[in-house]
Write a structure and sequence with these properties.
This protein is an alpha/beta fold. It contains 8 helices and 8 strands; from the N terminus they run βββαβαβααβααβαβα. The chain has an 8-stranded mixed beta sheet with strand order 1-2-4-3-5-6-7-8, sandwiched between helices. 48% of the residues are buried.
Length: 278
Amino acid sequence: MKHFITDINVKTTGASDYTANLTAYIPENEFTAEDRRIRPAVLIIPGGGYEHTSDRESEPIAMKFISEGLCAFVLRYSVAPARFPQALCEAFSAISYIREHAEEWNIDPNKITVCGFSAGGHLSACVGAFWNAPWLDEHMKMDRNMIKPNLLVLSYPVITSGEFAHEGSVNNLLGDNKTQENVELISMEKQVNQDVPPTFIWHTYEDGSVPVNNTVLFAHALLRHNVPVEMHIYRRGGHGLSLGNHMVNQQLKIGEKHMSSDWIDKAIRFIFEEITNE
């Protein structure tokens, strides 16, 4: 496996200098009969309320994906005091960077999934909804085909800025720019359009930090716009479950798994089925 970290510097309109980090996990082909097997890629965007980026939603997730034959990338994006759309532009730059090196890394440039958790799920939903938005040109000019996501995988995502909002994420993302216009803009159930890619989304009913209504609102919006969606809601469990096993949850005994732990197997199946049926 190739493993390395690269910096992503994006200067958006009116922003200070910020640096994001992209960590790559690229499987070698020595375990296959092919010298050059072309693989799909997953860009992992951890959560953290736009205040930090979570470790448990980073490398552990990447390790699971590469064990199933996907190339994985973890984006450590800019958080508060960075404001919208700084992190979004960094995510787009990361997708473009992956596509630029697709041939070198044996990646299919048309099979890039964006996988986000909590606030990272919000950022991933923004990627899905805004990659073709005209207003993006005010902040960065990039070939839209280079920044387009092919699939979304959203884990207990922050979606709405309305009744069921995670206020901490909204405040950290907007800060002093919390105008009514911007609050509406980042409420992702209101921004879904026909350009959003097929989406896998899951949540827990008992989530006390980011209400499950966030996932339901986004799924309903996808259905209204005829965007394919697969949704799973687990009866038990709080927020931030990650893989749902003892590796990322100290409350679980060695070998124990939460009922939600099968989400990533379902998501991997979703990714392979979608890219096979294209």
